[in-house]
Design goal:
It catalyses: a 2'-deoxyadenosine in DNA + S-adenosyl-L-methionine = an N(6)-methyl-2'-deoxyadenosine in DNA + S-adenosyl-L-homocysteine + H(+). By secondary structure, the chain is of the alpha+beta class. Among the domains are: 176 residues, no CATH class; 89 residues, no CATH class; 126 residues, no CATH class; 235 residues, no CATH class. Helices cover 48% and strands 10% of the residues. The chain is built from 48 helices and 28 strands. Helix 35 crosses helix 38.
Length: 1240
């Protein structure tokens, strides 16, 4: 399956259908904010005031209007578009697989050739509706017209070339939709009915993007958006692993527990001609045998197998509580079919038996439930050609449903439901056969304990209504107790027979809702042999408050994510010794917040096997931060049971993981297989499932003291509004920043507003990532007041204040590696840049050495191999006493000190550091950066920038190698101290050295940026560091294609190079610069440099300053008639007027002169034809620039009158937006929106 094509089609189809259904709604008088009046006529209805008759019953339009008023226009349009999407792809699937008597989608329009276009469309709609109604008898979930308005909103352009029907046939290959035997199908691609699930996932992908974009803006995920946010199609090979090792294992265990099978007396009874299940196991590519167990464990397993030996195919029950489009259940169907065959059942009867007896499914999304129903029926149709006839004759009720809510059923409806005297006899007779003890549910909070013989219909109805109130909020995590469902169903049948006009509305509501509530209640109160699912992944922080409170109150140890809640729920759904299989995120295996949950899991279950999948397990790109695990567990606890764990984290794609697993399952490979009792890992402080840890490492954890006894790792603050309280240091007036406060008192007395703030950043060791500042004026008054307003007490988010401004270490919270760094005094720290402190300052370097070593990485990977490094993990890093021995600690401190100096020097050589002094080329030129160069080399560096780069390159390389050597020396020492020579080597890869080497293109571009800084007076070639931050001089630098200004940026740069390196070597230096930044073959050096300034300089500036530029680019428009840079720290209210007076007028005059010259050439006969043609082309180009500049000049005049002021404390983004998308009326009287500056 070409997923790119499928995705492209599905995303397009949604847009196309929504547009087409909206247009159809408009045709029948319905718009988003306006609904026309309609009136009934002989053959349908018409819009009042129009003659066209719409030949549908008027009740259709009335139902549609009622639903729009209730749900909203957009939701109804989305609903109709989605259902027709389902119908079209379902019809196409069935016709490709020859399940239809005639084609409906791939139809030859020639049969309508005698008709006019309108009549053709009408005829096709008639055929389509007729076929849908016919299929509605066997597949009502997709085709039954339960909603009157579904037909009336069929788009009018249904036969157009660019409508979904035509595109579906052309874009989606038939091979994708053809059904194949799942056991013969290889992993090369999905095909068959499951492709429809993929299509729906893609269909809603834009909606999913919207939900997550809103989440980034702190908009919590409400119940309506949970399906879009959480649906993720499970790769087929993982589905096969889960089903084969759960359902398959159940069937294997039956025969292992059967004494006749063990004695080999029944080997010939199988229809497959081998001992029971042997051939099945050969067909299961992903089935894993259990680990060899100790004798006592094996004896217990034998008892379990004997307990399960009496199961039959018809008695097996399988539940997927988050079934989505039924992907897992479809493969379970395939495997069940093989099990029935193995047991000798009649082939034709098997599909119906599976659907009626074995498969159960739940989901909160009604749409995917429809798809799941269709998928299962199509799978059954694949095995039974007469299925549709069988359904029409015998009927078929699937045991799957979407979770419905009881919110509409009030007390009056309940009173009516319970009003029948006749039913009392039915209740009594039904109840006599029911010997259920009704238990209170956690969800229901009912305190009634009903004794046998005291059954109350009302209590059961009230309970059912109560438990399913707002049920779509909670879905299948609701715990439902057994009630007398048979009595409720008897009452439903009685109500069907009643002819009660007085309570007609109640009756309709009951008949619409109660059967669905009873059905889901039955499913949710059952226990199952096998529970398999890929649950939703949604963390507590992103969930709406209602669901979050429910999780906190009802799932205290698993509440942190919905996937972990489902781990608990699935165990509760499973029978004694039942099997649970799931894929989810692997954080529950390692994070300290799940420590209690891990203990609970091992107390309640045993993990039979696990696939540690790591990143990229899914075929879709879900990022490298999402890491997964799949597992199979049994609802039975034995702490001595040895789990088989397969490590697939090293494989870099889903397909590579699949291939590796198949090799392991077929005994081709035995690498990365671990067999152990997981409980033995609990000697590690945070009790992670670090299955790869050996006895040597476990011994260290048990005998060495934790780092918390040596230093104090502390979690940082959360501002609750980073946009408001944080800035990057270059955004504000540097005179308002206090960089070196030693304590809170000193900070408060300084009168400064901004203070350095550690916020993690990218992976970097030893020193650096000093970028952010926080508004901590008056001891953080504003931040604290805001936090107190949100949380009542500011201390909930503002933590560990007594450590603010102290020297220590910091690290990156979200990173594959810790990246610990030395932090000078003066910093406050963020939760993403948590910090470590020590009362003994001399110990800081030793802790830093440990945290930057391979030893620390190994320990942290064991305790938490996720991308979120927790304070608790760092506290538990084992520390050897030997590192404090005098001779060893002396060596460590010296190496660490040297590493800090190297890293600090490198960090400060780039202008985004607040300690930036000069560009490295100038430091080399002055002889400060490289002391061992000869006098001749120094002279060359004074003349040639190429020489400066070569010396810088050599210096950077030496620093890089020195740092690498030091790190390897530290690793060697620590590996020896800890005794990990077998586990680790001291070598460090180049990619793990976090200072930068020389890079010609980057360094020349940074030189150009430095030059621009000098032009603005930010830097100087005579004085180091940030020298000037405010003045009205040099506040505008024009950037235009035409060289009509003496202070044009290009000319000033040429002069800068000439002044710095001399006139004699100017051309050589310009050549070197041009070649370094990508000179094209036909360009001179000056042309290349000019092109760079006009096209790429500002893009690079935005990258360096992370879209918070300190130089702002005035731009007249897309024709680039005029451009100029201003320096934000030199902005004043007159700057716009100065641009208008001193630059824009002049360039317009220049263009007009050019235009006059070109006109004379174009109209003259004295010039060659080529010149005349070129002049005519240029006339158009120049005239566009003139028009653009004139409108821009008007815009400048309009803005200059406004005298827009800025406040640097508000940050770059807020100030920048003051000048963007401003409405103004141009000289033509047209109101337009214009940007003053380049659009970021």
């Amino acid at each position: 399956m070409d997923k790119t094509k499928v995705k492209s089609f599905s995303v397009w189809a949604r847009r196309n259908l929504i547009k087409a259904v909206t247009e159809r709604a408009l045709k029948i008088g319905i718009e988003k904010n306006n609904i026309s009046e309609v009136e009934q006529c002989q053959h349908g209805f018409k819009i009042r005031g129009k003659e066209e008759i719409i030949d549908f019953p008027i009740r259709y339009i009335k139902t549609l209007i009622d639903n729009i008023k209730q749900k909203g226009f957009e939701e109804i349009i989305e609903e109709v578009a989605c259902i027709w999407f389902f119908r079209f792809i379902a019809l196409r699937y069935m016709e490709v697989n020859n399940y239809l008597t005639e084609k409906i989608i791939d139809i030859q329009l020639e049969k309508f050739s005698s008709e006019k276009q309108n009549d053709m469309t009408k005829s096709y709609k008639y055929i389509l509706i007729k076929k849908c109604n016919e299929l509605g008898k066997v597949i009502p979930e997709i085709f039954q017209n339960k909603i009157d308005y579904m037909e009336i909103l069929i788009p009018d352009n249904i036969l157009d070339e660019n409508f979904i029907i035509k595109r579906l046939v052309e874009d989606i290959e038939e091979e994708c939709l053809k059904e194949e035997n799942n056991f013969l199908q290889d992993y090369k691609g999905l095909c068959g009915v499951e492709v429809i699930g993929w299509m729906y996932q893609y269909y809603i992908s834009e909606k999913k993007d919207e939900v997550f974009a809103a989440l980034k803006e702190n908009v919590k995920i409400e119940k309506e958006n949970i399906p879009a946010a959480t649906q993720l199609f499970t790769p087929k090979w993982i589905v096969k692993y889960m089903v084969e090792n759960s359902l398959g294992r159940l069937w294997i265990d039956k025969f292992k527990g059967d004494s006749e099978y063990i004695d080999n007396e029944k080997c010939t009874s199988s229809k497959l001609g081998k001992c029971h299940t042997d051939l099945l196991k050969e067909r299961w590519q992903y089935y894993l045998e259990e680990s060899n167990q100790e004798t006592e464990v094996e004896e217990e397993l034998d008892k379990i197998r004997k307990y399960k030996s009496n199961i039959s195919p018809e008695s097996i029950t399988i539940l997927d509580p988050c079934m989505g489009s039924g992907h897992i259940l479809v493969y379970a169907f395939d495997l069940l079919y093989e099990i029935y065959i193995d047991a000798g059942y009649n082939i034709r009867e098997i599909p119906g038996l599976i659907l009626r007896n074995n498969i159960y499914g739940l989901d909160i999304d009604e749409k995917v439930t429809k798809l799941a129903s269709f998928a299962l029926k199509m799978k059954a149709r694949y095995y039974n050609k007469e299925l549709f006839k069988d359904i029409q004759r015998d009927g078929l009720k699937l045991n799957i449903c979407s979770i419905e809510e009881s919110n509409e059923i009030n007390k009056e409806v309940i009173d009516y439901f319970c009003s029948s005297q006749v039913l009392k006899k039915s209740i009594n007779s039904t109840f006599k056969s029911s010997k259920n003890t009704v238990k209170n549910s956690r969800v229901g909070k009912s305190q009634d304990s009903l004794e046998v013989g005291e059954y109350s219909l009302r209590k059961d109805v009230e309970y059912l209504i109560q438990v399913f109130n707002n049920a779509k909020e909670y879905g299948s995590i609701l715990e439902v107790r057994k009630i007398n469902f048979e009595a409720l169903e008897s009452r439903i049948e009685e109500i069907k027979k009643e002819d009660n006009f007085i309570f007609g509305d109640y009756r309709k509501l009951i008949l619409d809702k109660m059967p669905l509530l009873i059905k889901q209640g039955k499913i949710m109160s059952m226990k199952y042999d096998v529970v398999i699912t890929n649950p939703p992944y949604m963390g507590l922080r992103g969930i709406n408050s209602k669901l979050a409170d429910f999780l906190i109150n009802n799932f205290p140890i698993s509440k942190y994510d919905l996937f972990s809640v489902y781990m608990e729920v699935c165990l509760k759904y499973s029978k004694k010794y039942g099997i649970v299989s799931m894929i989810n995120q692997h954080s529950w295996m390692f994070l300290s917040s799940f420590m209690e949950f891990r203990s609970w899991l091992l107390d309640k279950s045993t993990f039979i096997n696990m696939l540690h999948l790591g990143t990229r397990a899914f075929e879709e790109n879900v990022g490298t931060i999402v890491q997964n695990v799949a597992y199979v567990s049994r609802n039975y606890s034995n702490c001595s049971y040895k789990t088989k764990v397969i490590n697939l984290t090293k494989e870099n794609s889903s397909e590579e993981k699949n291939i590796k697993l198949k090799e392991i399952c077929s005994n081709i490979s035995k690498r990365e297989i671990y067999e152990l009792a997981l409980k033995q890992l609990f000697i590690i402080p945070s009790k992670p499932f670090a299955y790869w840890v050996n006895e040597n490492i476990l011994k260290v954890f048990s005998s060495f003291k934790p780092l918390s006894e040596l230093a104090k790792p502390r979690q940082g603050m959360a501002t609750s509004d980073n946009k408001r309280f944080l800035r990057q240091w270059f955004e504000v007036d540097i005179n308002k920043i206090k960089f070196d406060a030693n304590n809170s008192e000193e900070a408060q007395n300084s009168g400064k507003k901004w203070f350095p703030y550690n916020k993690g950043g990218e992976y970097r060791k030893w020193y650096g990532n000093n970028e952010f500042i926080i508004n901590w004026e008056n001891d953080g008054k504003e931040v604290k007041e805001y936090a107190a307003k949100l949380y009542k007490s500011y201390s909930r988010t503002i933590k560990n204040e007594k450590f603010y401004f102290k020297k220590g270490l910091t690290y990156t919270f979200i990173s594959e590696d810790i990246g610990a760094r030395y932090c000078q005094n003066g910093f406050i720290f963020d939760v993403a840049g948590s910090s470590i402190f020590s009362e003994k300052e001399e110990q800081i370097n030793i802790v830093l050495a440990l945290l930057c070593s391979k030893i620390s990485k190994m320990f942290l990977d064991i305790m938490n191999p996720t991308y979120n490094i927790q304070v608790g993990d760092i506290k538990n890093v084992p520390v050897s006493k030997k590192i404090f021995q005098k001779e060893i600690s002396y060596k460590i401190k010296n190496l660490v000190h040297e590493n800090i100096i190297i890293s600090k020097n490198e960090w400060d050589l780039f202008e985004t550091s607040w300690d930036f002094k000069w560009h490295p080329f100038l430091l080399i030129k002055s002889g400060e950066l490289e002391s061992d160069i000869s006098g001749d080399e120094k002279n060359l560096c004074n003349k040639y920038i190429s020489c400066g780069f070569d010396v810088w390159k050599s210096f950077a390389h030496k620093q890089f190698e020195k740092l690498k050597k030091n790190e390897e020396e530290l690793n060697k020492m620590l590996i020896g101290i800890y005794g990990f020579q077998e586990e680790l080597t001291p070598e460090v890869k180049d990619k793990d050295i976090t200072i930068r080497r020389a890079d010609k293109e980057r360094d020349i571009k940074s030189f150009i940026s430095f030059a621009v800084g000098c032009m603005f007076g930010r830097y100087s070639t005579y004085k180091k560091g940030l020298i000037y931050n405010g003045s009205i001089d040099n506040s505008i630098i024009p950037m235009t294609e035409e060289e009509c200004f003496e202070d044009d940026i290009f000319l000033r740069f040429i002069n800068f190079v000439k002044d710095l390196y001399g006139k004699e070597t100017l051309n050589e230096n310009l050549d070197f610069i041009a070649d370094s930044i990508g000179r094209k073959t036909f360009e001179t050096s000056k042309q290349c440099i000019k092109r760079y300034f006009l096209k790429d300089f500002y893009k690079d500036h935005l990258k360096i300053y992370k879209k918070k530029p300190i130089y702002w680019l005035l731009k007249s428009g897309k024709n680039e008639g005029f451009g100029a840079l201003i320096y934000i720290h030199r902005y004043n209210e007159d700057i716009i007027q100065n641009v208008r007076k001193n630059y824009i007028h002049l360039i317009i005059e220049k263009y007009i002169k050019q235009m006059n010259k070109l006109n004379s050439i174009a109209s003259s006969k004295d010039y060659p034809t080529k010149d005349v043609n070129n002049a005519k082309k240029d006339i158009k180009k120049i005239s566009e620039k003139i028009e653009e500049c004139k409108e821009y000049e008007e815009f400048l005049e309009y803005l200059s009158a406004k005298k827009i002021s800025i406040d640097l404390d508000d940050g770059i983004k807020v100030n920048y937006e003051k000048f963007q998308l401003i409405k103004f009326t141009n000289s033509k009287g047209i109101e337009v929106k214009k940007d003053l500056f380049f659009k970021i």
